[in-house]
Amino acid sequence: MTRVAAVDCGTNSVRLLIADIAPGEGGGTLTDVERRMEIVRLGEGVDETGRLSPAALERTFTAMRGYADLIERHGARAGHGPVKTRVVATSATRDAENRADFVSGVVDIFGVVPEVISGDEEAELSFAGATRELAALRPARPYLVVDIGGGSTEFVLGSSSADAARSTDIGCVRMTERHLRDDPPTPLQISGAAADIDAALASVREAVPVDEARTLVGLAGSVTTVAGIALDLPEYDSERIHLSRITATQVHEVTRRLLHATRAERAEIPVMHPGRVDVIGAGALILDRIMREYGFGAVVVSERDILDGIAWSLL
Question: SS3 breakdown of the chain: % helix, strand, coil, rounded to 5?
């Protein structure tokens, strides 16, 4: 048994998974010890300025200091001593001119250098994390795994491993800042965002044979929030959301509802995390356009994603 800590720092959130991993038949087992998420909006304004703002960096470092304390406590409690830790940073940090400020701050907090990974590696880790628990459902293969983040969306096709992947610069934060600026967004803003998304989806086809996919697997907060709304849950319930199957009709209706709602109305939705209120319309629109453009009738929703992939990589 190995105790590991995975930290995923994205454009919108920073997340922590402390887990015990054991090798074994079928690939081994991963048991959660602690799983946390904080909305820090690290990528706020990066699409426009090209830089991580001091306020965004401080929000991120504050969350990370809390995570470092948890890692130290859980390592000591289990008698493991230092926990094997990997910190991964994705889209916003890849795009930022001043990412060295981020790197030095992370080293001070965790004592490890963060890996600013490529979009392709992000896709590989997302696929690994998302697909280990799918066998029980017996979904048709190959899978198209789609990870909708704040600054980018990763697409990866495969059956047991990633065969083809593409990272695109469409994400819920980036599309909101670029297009959906009114409350609620105007029809012209929505059509502009849809056109931007569709252009990115066309580029994905150049690298990923999406028409070969038989099952769409959706990851990350935009997808799980849309699923929670579609299931009409009275509160966010990860157990009911994980491995749920949401139809294209349900996704389209939730997207329409979110894009026509005001910020105040979105905030009243029971499953809505406060940090997603501003950007969930764009995230839902990305999922909706993917299903329309690629012809999927349903999406299997996974609560397991790049964070779990990072943890498995430490075994």
Answer: 50, 20, 30
The C-alpha R_g of the chain, in whole angstroms, comes to 19
**Residue 277 in contact with residue 220, Cβ under 8 Å?**
no
pLDDT of residue 150: 87
* DSSP category for residue 33: E
Averaged pLDDT for residues 227-242: 95
Closest to 315 (Cα-Cα) out of 98, 132, 77, 62: 132
What are the tokens at 17? 């998974």
User: What is d(CA 2, CA 21) in angstroms, rounded to the nearest whole number?
Assistant: 5
Q: How high does pLDDT run on average in the chain?
A: 91
| Nearest CA among 175, 176, 174, 156 for reference residue 166 | 156
Q: Is 167 helix (H, G, I), strand (E, B) or coil?
A: strand
- Contact (CB, 8 A) for 21 and 28: yes
- pLDDT recorded at residue 177: 93
- pLDDT at position 62 over 80: yes
What confidence category does residue 27 fall into, taking pLDDT thresholds of 50, 70 and 90?
Answer: low
Three-state DSSP class for 139? coil
| Number of residues that make up the chain | 315
**pLDDT higher than 90, residue 215:** yes
Q: Using CA atoms, how far apart are residues 306 and 284, in angstroms rounded to an integer? A: 19
2 — pLDDT class (breaks 50, 70, 90): confident
Give the rounded distance of the alpha carbon of 182 from its chain centre.
Answer: 25
Please give the C-alpha separations between residue 295 and each of 41, 147, 212, in angstroms, as whole numbers. Answer: 32, 18, 11
Look at residue 44 and tell me whether its pLDDT is greater than 90. no
**Long-range CB contacts (within 8 A, 24+) of 70-79:** 70/16, 70/18, 70/34, 70/36, 71/5, 71/16, 71/18, 71/110, 74/3, 74/5, 74/18, 74/33, 74/34, 75/3, 78/3
Residue ranges of E strands in the chain: 2-9, 13-22, 29-39, 84-89, 115-116, 143-148, 153-158, 162-168, 215-219, 245-247, 298-302
Selection from 132, 120, 129 nearest residue 156 by Cα: 120
